[in-house]
UniProtKB/TrEMBL annotation:
It comes from Macrococcus lamae. Its cofactor is Zn(2+). It is an enzyme of class 4 (lyase). Zn(2+) binds at residues 38, 40, 96, 99. This is carbonic anhydrase.
Amino acid sequence: MTLLDDVLSYNRQFVADKDYEGFQTSKVPSMKAVVLTCMDTRLVELSSKALGFKNGDIKIVKNAGATITHPYGATMRSLLVGIYALGAEEIIIMGHKDCGMGNLDVESVLNTMKSRGVKEEVLHTLEHSGIDIHHFLEGFKDVRENVSNNIDLVYNHPLFDKSVPVHGLVIDPNTGELELIQNGYDKVTQ
Ligand SMILES: [Zn+2]
């Protein structure tokens, strides 16, 4: 049995047993917030449960490092669509301690790519095409600073409504304890 076999098999039973009934809700978040956090395995459920959110309460966007890598990329688009089309009225950007994107060893990632068949000349071609591979892959040094930088990016985005509060948090992936980095209500302009 592969992972996919397990998933499909479990799913048939899940639907047959009507287990979905406990999850049914609308696409408008009842807590009117969109949360950007990390794809870390320890946060699969903890990122919602430690904050008191359940299915239907929030929009949640996850990526490696809870980071907006481009002002016109998919993550920023998700935040904007959450605000302008899906009923969110606040944003929470939540990094976490011990994040895999903190001090990510880019050289090691590149070496792994090469050992798995990515050719050196492909990397050179990309570099010559103006793609900075190191910059593309690199994470951050300090999670608090990363949360603050992402808040600034959102808040200064030309398409952002500055009356929307953007809060910054850092979560402990072991205990779920939150550290407040930015109270977004302090910064909004009406
Ligand atoms: Zn992480």
